[in-house]
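This part of the workshop introduces the protein records we will be handling. An example says more than a description, so a record of this kind follows:
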Amino acid sequence: MRVLAAMSGGVDSAVAAALAVDAGHDVTGVHLALSPDRQTLRSGARGCCSVEDAHDARRVADELGIPFYVWDLAERFTEDVVDDFVAEYAAGRTPNPCLRCNEKIKFSAVLDRARALGFDAVVTGHHARLADGELRRSVDAAKDQSYVLGVLTAEQLAAAVFPLGGMTKDRVREIAAERGFAVATKADSHDICFIPDGDTRGFLARRLGEQPGPVVDAATGATVGEHAGAYGFTVGQRRGLGVTAGDSRPRYVLGIEPVTRTVTIGTADLAGVGRIVTAAPTWTGAPPELPFRAEVQLRAHGVPVLCEVTGNDADGLQILLDEQQRGVAAGQSAVLYEPDPERGDRVLGQAAIRSTGDRAATTGPGPSA
């Protein structure tokens, strides 16, 4: 099989490419240049896709004896990931840029180009498994990335190869060390790649400017503080609220209203939600017949919770949680998994969260998160 190995310059993609070569595939490596100013996209272990990373990827390709190219997708990345990220925060939502990058860049732009060039599949270093065409969790629960791949369609998954899903991250590093790859001990990149200093609020402030507004207490309706921009907050946030409560109980962000620029806060007893309303879903295979039982994961490293899924999937889903959850924000992805204990690692699909509310209110969109 003729495959294109997406090589970020990290240890995971290096080992994935090596395993594809070992499997007898005709492998070509490609590094994605995602920023016009790539020198700014790494700060220690933060960020990725810098010139340094391109050099690391090229060295691995040379050691494997495979062709290697750099593809400039900076304009597409800016439009589909960075601009989308800013727009979502401006609208009071909390996006996941890694999920959007997988959807729009790695398994849309790259896959489309790969197919046009005659490649059969794209190999990546994601920690997830494909079994009989079904997307499943990695065996390494701590490194599992099935959540950010839940947006992929069956057609995209049919042209994807994830060689690392059946092993732990420790084993990945062992393989890299055995092969003498310099990236064997390279730190994992984390946080948002296009915000290498980790200051999301500062990044958004530079893009959106100051947009002052009130911080309101949900219980009393009183204004208890001011902020410089609602985009600097996300639902469920506890620290950095900039207010002093009248008692010792911690406060959490309960809601963000972008038009009035109001950030609503409240105590933990007000922070849980039992019902989620989503946009139209995408499915990794045949759509399940509604209603159905599932496990839903609401954050990249969140704990799945059992739920009942109803609604009209053309318009969106209604997800009724068995247990209330905190920190559920509009814009996040609700990724659904098979609830059967023997198959609970199978990803069914995902949908973007539009709003949240009380489980008792089972009709209508409910209050926005």
